[in-house]
Amino acid sequence: MSREVVIGLDIGTTSVKACVFDLHGKLIAEAERMNTFNYPQQGWVEQDPIEIEQSAVQAIKGAIQKAGIEKNDLISIGFSAAMHSLICVDETGSPISPALIWADGRSYPQAESVIETMGNEVYSETGTPVHPMAPFVKLLWMKETKYEPYLQAKYFMSIKEYLLQCWFNQRVIDYSMASATGLFNPSTHTWNQKLLTLTGIHEAQLSRIVPPTEVLTGIRPQIAEEMGIDPELPFVIGAADGQLANLGIGAILPGEVAVSVGTSGAIRQITTGVKISDNQETFCYSFTEDSSIIGGPTNNGGIALQWLKDLLNDQRSFTEFLADAEKVPLGSDGILFLPYINGERAPIWNQRAKGNFYGLSITHKREHFIRAVLEGITFNLFQIGKALERLAGKHQKIYVNGGLSRSRLWLQMMADVFEAEIYVPESYHSAAWGAAWTGLVATGKVKSFEDIKENIPMGEAIVPIKENSEKYRMIYDNYEKLASGISKNF
Q1: What pTM does this model have?
Q2: 16, 158, 389, 432: most buried, per Cβ within 10 A?
Q3: Whether the Cβ atoms of residue 395 and residue 420 lie closer than 8 Å to each other
């Protein structure tokens, strides 16, 4: 007997995941392929686009096999992808450079130069803070250093665009991924010609801009065969992982905020039109013709906990590792952690920022450091959230997803620090479900993006503990003073 299902393909930094859902958001099966990283020099972070494309094929194949579905069960496949990657591509569509991903900081000098000369102008026109993460700044580095792949390139693409080009022989980019390049005007949905000139490239070297509901069919037959799908199955271009995580978690109305924490993290809100902050604390990326997503990303989510775990040579599971934080009281007996171990984007936008433990004493133990890192990650998100509130108004409802959302201790910490109820979906694959739902909208299977709110299996809300919130309020004041005071030393 046939059953209707949809797949969300989430092309992340750490891995590629394919998730099979029923039409009500229940996860049926998933398959994941891990990505590798290369660090050829200090501050350089690269990935192999060919490896990621092959991982995507295998993830879809694996998810279909695990779900045990037939070809005619599958309605569509929607795409989600991490932002800010850049690949140089030749005239045959082959990559001639690795993918420089969001964490690549080699273009910091170019970012500083733009900030000093025209930072406000670039930000106000694009909604993208000037930072080494942005392909705009990466292209400036390529131009100024005469990077050989840049000089030879016919086209420039993100990892997601490269994958679509491999599968469909089309160069297309959705509004959100275009926004994240720093070369796009979110008010007109066009490439910014002045910035293209600065980077030394022209519009024909970039992809055609399309809405998230753009449908692609006619995948290369050999790839369809390898995946185990019908060659005419509709694929839907979808959007960036941030927009789709908000959609997939149901944070789509005014006052509804999504917090995602995996390796990195972000706090985001969907809004109508374009909203730019006065002091460049937040981004504003397009989603649809009339909506955008505003918020701030942090470089330092779960990666900070992984760093500490590795530093302590702790061989236990993450669950056991985090459980140690429950052995010490709220506030970590005076330790404050500035979580800038990987540079930082929001709220300080300084790739040279460094992490810091403050308030150490001889009585502190391993468990104090674990809790301090958890609290530092949370305080940093709260600081970004305050900037978002100044732009979009007070948070009415907070949804949380990502790997760290599996920690009940951290979820309670979030509720206490934000002084708000925290809502967590049963599945933490929100970006994949948002991509899958976009596929259903594009193919006419459902009426609207908004209808997803009735199709998200949700767990019980985590309620703030008043006494904890009062204590955290005072501790956060000290954290904020420390963060602002130490920034002059970066």
Answers
A1: 0.91
A2: 432
A3: yes
* Length, in residues, of the chain: 490
Q: Provide the b/e sequence for 11-43 (b: ≥16 CB within 10 Å).
A: bbbbbbbbbbbebebebbbbbbbebeeeeeeeb
Average pLDDT over residues 52-77: 97
Look at residues 163, 197, 166, 202 and name the one whose alpha carbon lies nearest to residue 174.
163
**Which are the contacts of 418, defined by CB distance < 8 A and separation ≥ 6?**
382, 385, 395, 398, 464
Cα 265 from Cα 301, distance rounded (Å): 5
The one-letter code for the residue type at 35 is N
Pairing of strands 46-47, 99-100: antiparallel
Query: CA-to-CA distance for 339 and 356, rounded, in angstroms?
Result: 7
CA 308 to centroid of chain Cα atoms: 22
**Which run of H or of E encompasses 120?**
helix 108-126
In sequence order, which residues have a C-beta less than 8 Å from that of residue 373 and are 6 or more positions away? Answer: 304, 305, 308, 337, 339
Quickly tell me which residue has 């792949």 as its tokens.
149
State the pLDDT confidence band at 1, using cuts at 50, 70 and 90. very low
Average pLDDT over residues 427-450: 95
Q: What are phi and psi of 428, to 5 degrees?
A: -90, 10
340 contacts: CB under 8 Å, gap ≥ 6: 299, 300, 348, 350, 353, 354, 355, 356
Angle between helices 159-168 and 49-67 (to 10 degrees): 70
User: What secondary structure letter does DSSP report for 234?
Assistant: P
Q: Residue 283 in contact with residue 131, Cβ under 8 Å? A: no
Instruction: For residue 430, give the amino acid letter.
Output: S
Structure tokens at 106: 């080699």
Alpha carbons within 13 angstroms on the beta-carbon side of residue 168 total 20
**Cα–Cα dist 260/166, whole Å:** 30
DSSP 404: G
Q: Please, are residues 21 and 27 in contact by the beta-carbon 8 Å criterion?
A: yes
Question: In 324-465, which ranges are continuous DSSP H helix?
Answer: 366-392, 408-418, 430-442
How far, in Å, CA of 21 to CA of 5, rounded? Answer: 6
What mean pLDDT do residues 437-452 have?
97
Mean pLDDT, range 212-236, rounded to an integer: 98
Task: Return the residue matching tokens 């991924």.
Answer: 177
Any bridge partners for residue 9, and if so which? 18, 79
Work out the average pLDDT over 461-484: 96
Name the residue with tokens 């694009």: 126
> CA 410, CA 125: separation in Å to the nearest integer?
37
| Beta strands 422-423 and 265-272, pairing class | unpaired
Instruction: Output the DSSP codes for 413-429.
Output: HHHHHHTS-EE-BSSS-
Does residue 90 come out as left (phi exceeding 0), alpha (psi in the -120 to 50 range) or beta?
Answer: beta
- Mean per-residue pLDDT, 62-88: 97
